[in-house]
């Protein structure tokens, strides 16, 4: 059975969020570690975290994903911006460990004129400083669209970050279908080719999670604009091939599609499940 869910808010508590996911017929989901703009996090409610964990295992959920604030820039030139990213990610990793969250996903950042190599080195160096023996959460690098000066827009850049991390047994990859398509990997006409490239460059064993989004822009436009499933250039047939691909179909999938209401996610989850062969 396909493991699929959507992005949810923990604002009413972690257990409540898991119950909401269940009510949508999801068996995985993603949530922000704190306010997505990166401000202070509420202290972790350990009892609530334990209750969520029990609920997830009793209901046979696939692994869930904690997402870092998307405004962080781990490779920023400005030291206070880079330090802020480090502070938040270090604290998030502690919280993920306390929650026993399996995965912590982040965007590797934008080099803003420093050059890709500097960006890659800085992001890897940050991971080296925060990944220590005290965490058993695996950090996932999200594949990016290469919009602006974003790093992580090619599999080679993602691999270079991984190679720069000493404890990279704790590092995996989250593949965002909108982002890789925007970055120029034609997962509609040559999904096999893109996954073969992923395997050759990074290794499919690093791939732990899929962000399942359609794309408002065509392949290679470097525009990170998510569309609802079937509403973009990846299309229903493209999504059908993605969720049925032998290299992907057993991974957890999370929708980050633009919808207002939870019922719309329930519908989309049901729709994507219906595409599975
Ligand atoms: Fe993301
Ligand atoms: Fe994403
Ligand atoms: Zn995106």
Walkthrough of the structure:
- It is a single chain.
- This protein has 277 residues and is of the alpha/beta class.
- The chain is 39% helix and 15% strand.
- It is built from nine helices and ten strands.
- It has helices at 14-23, 46-58, 79-99, 116-130, 155-163, 177-183, 191-201, 235-244, 262-274; strands spanning 3-8, 30-32, 65-67, 103-106, 138-142, 171-176, 207-212, 214-215, 226-227, 252-255.
- The strands form two sheets. It has an eight-stranded parallel β-barrel, surrounded by four helices. It has a two-stranded antiparallel ribbon with strand order 8-9.
- Helix 1 (14-23) runs parallel beside helix 2.
- The longest helix is centred in the N-terminal third of the chain and has 21 residues, at 79-99.
- The protein is globular.
- One fe (iii) ion (FE) binds at residues 67, 70, 107, 142.
DSSP strand count: 10
How far do the termini sit from each other? 10 Å
The strands making up the biggest β-sheet line up spatially as 1-2-3-4-5-6-7-10
Oligomer: single chain
Which range does the strand content fall in? 5-15%
Bound molecules: fe (iii) ion, zinc ion
Rg measurement, Å? 18 Å
- What is the helix/strand order? EHEHEHEHEHEHHEEEHEH
